[in-house]
Amino acid sequence: MDQLCIVTTGGTIDKIYFDDKSDYQVGEPQIGRILEELGVAFRFTVIPILRKDSLHISEADRQLIKQTIAAQPAKHVLVTHGTDTMVDTARVLAEIPDKTIVLTGALNPARFRGSDAEFNIGTAVGAVQSLPPGVYIAMNGRVWDPRKVRKNVAANRFEAAE
C-alpha cells in the first residue's frame, strides 16, 4: 500500500455530545488524529466529504462519495461512515472497479472512553491492505461482504444477513 486515502462522511465515530442539550453534532473527522496518535507506518490523506448522521445521507450524497473515491489515484480507500446506512453506501461503492474500499465506523463516538472506533479503524486498515479489490465493511472485529451483512439495531452490532 503506497498511500491510504481516507474519506470521511460523519457518523457516530465523529459525534460530539452536549449533555446540557441532550443533543449532538458531527464534529471534525477523528481518524487522522487517531492514526497519528497510534504512530502508523504508512502515509495517508483524509478527504472530509460530509458531516452527517448516516440516516441523513441521501442517494445524491452516495453518488458524491462514489465520484470522489473514483477520482482518487489511490487503490486503497478507507471510508468512515455512520453505521445505520453503511451497507447501503457500500453497495453503491461496489460499482467502482480496481480499488479496495473498506467502510468502518463506530457504535460509540471516538471521543468516548471505551469507544470501538480505534478497534474498528485498526481492523479496517488491516483489511484494506490485505484484501483484493472490492468493497468491504469492517465492524465488530470482522470483515463483511456488504451483500451478506446487516446492522442488528436491537443488539447494536453487525451480523450475517439471512
UniProtKB/TrEMBL annotation:
PROSITE patterns (UniProt xref): ASN_GLN_ASE_3 (PS51732)
Record domain L-asparaginase N-terminal: where: 4-155
Annotated keywords: Hydrolase
GO MF entries: asparaginase activity
Amino acids binding substrate: 54, 83-84
Active-site residues, Swiss-Prot/TrEMBL: 12
Entry EC number(s): 3.5.1.1
Gene3D superfamilies: L-asparaginase, N-terminal domain
Superkingdom per UniProt: Bacteria
Pfam families attached to this UniProt entry: Asparaginase
Database matches in InterPro entries: Asp/glu_Ase-like_sf (IPR036152), Asparaginase/glutaminase-like (IPR006034), L-asparaginase_N (IPR027474), L-asparaginase_N_sf (IPR037152)
Top enzyme category: hydrolase
Stated name of the protein: L-asparaginase
Protein species of origin: Rehaibacterium terrae
